[in-house]
Task: structure prediction
Amino acid sequence: MFNFFTRQRNRSRAGVGGISSPPTGNDRRIHVDLSHLQSLEDAAESLNLLPRQPTRSVLAGRHASRLRGRGLNFEELREYRPSDDVRAIDWKVTARTGEPHVRVYTEERDRPTLIVVDQRMSMYFGTRFAMKSVTAAETATLAAFAVLSQGDRVGGIVIRDDGLFSQRPKRCRTALTRFLSELARANCALHADAPPATPTSLDTVLQAVANIARRDHLILLISDFDVIGPASDRLLAGLARRNDVILMPVSDPSGEVMPKGFVSAISDGDQQATLDTNIGDIHTAMNRLNRERRAAIERWQHHYGIPLASLSAGAETLPQLHRLLGLSCPLNRRTAGAE
Result:
């Protein structure tokens, strides 16, 4: 099957289906640089990704289990004291020694977070406000700053068509800057005249996530979930059993119903063809493809109890995150605007 990405003809403005040549100027609806991503730090202070969530948050909804929070580290095994909780008694050691012993645990200092953000060509698309790639990049940045400010470790994976950039979670601003730099570089590399490439499969992404987040991580998957592989369901189920996973699908308003009169190039990395939705069969097939992708995401949500936080490239990023997290939105902040 062809991988769909935008190379719409005879259009040159962001928000109208993409651009036909590498961008000029500094329109942050099309591309974001490192300075813009770093400027989002203050706005991120209003976000809360801690386990205790407002009742209106999607992370406290009917279809999502509450976040696990920080885990426990084993500290020592010692003799029982009158003030100890009897539930902490280690009965095997007690039976072996003849004296009651308890296992002592301390709360982990933090809960590592892994932010997975898609910057493949399928994300370089927008018909109303911004490119999906921009919405994803801003979401990842806001989440990263929020996690670091609450004292937790944060790392990330940037998905490109030619591979992945991985950064293990660290409580370190230098590491965060490295992640944001790679994110900005991948975002700015997207343009309509980029050579065709075989897109990175979701299987490859999820396996890379599993290699880093073995257990007790918070994992944010920010993507349009293009190129779902044969092992995607199994890999995602395994991640959800051992971690807190949040699906953050990024869509464009045109993704609900593919409009007619849309002319683009499509490629599988080797061949290229023209997509024209004026042709009835093509229009029907594209709408069916969009429905099937949404159905797969909803199936993951219901089968594996994974929270779903849907984002749109048709609106500003920060207000959407406030709404999803059940927070009030400051009126004087914007995360993505035209220069």
